TrEMBL record:
PANTHER family cross-referenced by the UniProt entry: SLL8004 PROTEIN
Full protein name: Zeta toxin
Keyword ATP-binding applies: yes
Domain Zeta toxin: 88-190
The species this protein was found in: Paracidovorax konjaci
The organism's place on the tree of life at top rank: Bacteria
Record keywords: ATP-binding, Nucleotide-binding
Pfam families assigned to the protein according to its UniProt record, in alphabetical order: Zeta_toxin (PF06414)
Coiled coil start-end: none
Gene Ontology molecular functions: ATP binding; kinase activity
């Protein structure tokens, strides 16, 4: 368990989407965002307007309808409440927190290198970065868990996206650990997660499990710590 002050503001795109769908609002004060509401509105609208992801999906119009009222309450019509807009808003919030120098934590599937770029940017700005990486031994486990979540009223993710993100995320583990001051790797294939490894400053690996899952031993991270094969 981590102390609350170590976690800081918690940024989760799924929670942002849920709030926008339910109320058409997002309380920026919950993230500890400070500053003038007009300035925040301009910065957030600018971030959405500049998003290639939103343009790709014809969602860049969301920027023009975003408003930030007094007390830093963001308003956005519910027609824009979807996973793409929420993801871009989450990135905008992270960048505001980074600019403030605030402590924060964010959750991501880490299926693209921009999250690693962000970690490196944070370190360059004087932050210490910590990575908690969780994976399973088979993407079919992830598919089944998403189906269960949907049955319980949660949001869905297409199976092909789950499979693609699974592979891309694991492929980025080595780079992510290099970008982190300290990384903790967990296997969540069973009913309880297992802490399997810790990496410090990208160059010191400590194993915490008697048996390592295949998904981990197949990574470039693990291979980079293995002795070089003898030549002929």
């Amino acid at each position: 368990m981590l102390r609350p002050e170590w976690i800081g503001a918690y940024v989760n795109a799924d929670e942002i989407e849920k709030s926008l769908r339910a109320t058409g609002t997002l309380d920026l004060a919950d993230f500890g965002l400070t500053g003038d509401a007009v300035m925040l509105e301009q910065q957030l609208r600018g971030h959405l307007a500049a998003s290639g992801l939103l343009r790709q999906h014809s969602l860049d119009g969301a920027a023009q309808t975003l408003r930030v009222a007094e007390a830093n309450l963001l308003h956005l019509p519910t027609r824009w409440a979807n996973s793409y807009v929420a993801a871009v808003l989450a990135d905008a919030v992270r960048r505001q927190l980074l600019a403030q120098g605030s402590t924060f934590t964010f959750e991501t599937v880490m299926s693209s290198s921009d999250k690693i770029d962000f970690m490196e940017e944070a370190r360059a700005s004087g932050y210490r970065t910590y990575l908690y990486f969780v994976a399973t031994d088979d993407p079919a486990i992830n598919v089944a868990r998403v189906r269960l979540r949907v049955e319980q009223g949660g949001h869905d993710v297409p199976e092909n996206k789950i499979l693609e993100r699974y592979q891309r995320s694991i492929a980025l583990l080595n780079d992510a650990c290099t970008a982190a001051n300290r990384a903790y790797v967990f296997d969540n294939s069973g009913s309880e997660h297992q802490w399997i490894a810790e990496i410090q400053e990208g160059n010191e690996l400590t194993v915490h499990a008697s048996a390592l899952p295949a998904w981990f031993t197949g990574t470039t991270l693990w291979q980079s710590f293995q002795p070089a094969a003898d030549g002929p």
